[in-house]
Design brief:
The structure holds 2 protein chains of 2 kinds. By secondary structure, chain A is mostly beta strands. Chain A has no helices and 11 strands. In chain A, strand 4 and strand 5 form a beta hairpin. The radius of gyration of chain A is 13 Å and the shape is globular. By secondary structure, chain B is mainly beta. Chain B has no helices and 11 strands. Chain B has strands at residues 4-6, 11-14, 19-25, 32-38, 44-50, 55-57, 60-65, 70-75, 84-91, 102-103, 107-112. The radius of gyration of chain B is 14 Å and the shape is globular. Classes of the chains: A mainly beta, B mainly beta.
């Protein structure tokens, strides 16, 4: 199994704050993804990256941004949090050369914006 | 129309029961298919791939019907530990965005003693 970490695991924050959700993996995986999942609903891809300095937007319109300066890290930033951003955010990665079905997920960050 | 449609359930079955989940996908050119499992408040994990000829892994059997764009998962002799949400997942056609998956909203299963 891959080692993929997300911090914080839980975050409660007020409207208007800037937040960064961290995702890191220690296996040198090239492809990394951010998903948003509301309770009982499907995962929606919001950002992905194929490697350093490569980032793309996913399906779900998101006010978040990402960066990929190092292979290991793929942080997601919300410049001004709103209650509509309350959700679970899941990070995933795929080994270099591996098929996309072998996505390994981090434990997720549960974000609540008051 | 959603890429992947699943009956959300919930399915509540006794231990030892056989239960089947179905899902449909919209893009007939989709390349590959999977079932993931997600425990409550946990991350999804790959359960098994789904092959055209059908495949089995212990108590779990997956089937694919390309003509009907339909995927199924059969669980035999259900265990308490099978309680989870089962996500139907589809890989889009070659040529579209590489390395991405489409997830269904999941079917919730509860196995009771």
């Amino acid at each position: 199994e891959a080692d993929i970490y997300q911090t914080p695991r839980y975050l409660v924050i007020g409207t208007g704050k800037k937040i960064t959700l961290e995702c890191s993996q220690t296996m040198g995986h090239d492809k990394m993804y951010w998903y948003q999942q509301d309770p009982g609903m499907e995962l929606h891809l919001i950002h992905y990256s194929y490697g350093v300095n490569s980032t793309e937007k996913g399906d779900l319109s998101s006010e978040s941004t990402v960066s990929r300066i190092r292979t290991e890290h793929f942080p997601l930033t919300l410049e001004s949090a709103r209650p509509s951003h309350t959700s679970q955010y899941l990070c995933a990665s795929v080994p270099a050369g591996g098929p996309s079905d072998t996505q390994y997920f981090g434990p997720g960050t549960r974000l609540t914006v008051l | 129309r959603k890429e992947v449609e699943q009956d959300p359930g919930p399915f509540n079955v006794p231990e030892g029961a056989t239960v089947a989940f179905n899902c449909t996908y919209s893009n007939s050119a989709s390349q590959s298919f999977f079932w993931y499992r997600q425990d409550c408040r946990k991350e999804p994990k790959l359960l098994m791939s789904v092959y055209s000829s059908g495949n089995e892994d212990g108590r779990f059997t997956a089937q694919l019907n390309r003509a009907s764009q339909y995927i199924s998962l059969l669980i035999r002799d259900s265990k308490l530990s099978d309680s989870a949400t089962y996500l139907c997942v589809v890989n889009p056609p070659r040529g579209s965005t590489l390395g991405r998956l489409y997830f269904g909203r999941g079917t919730q299963l509860t196995v009771w003693p």
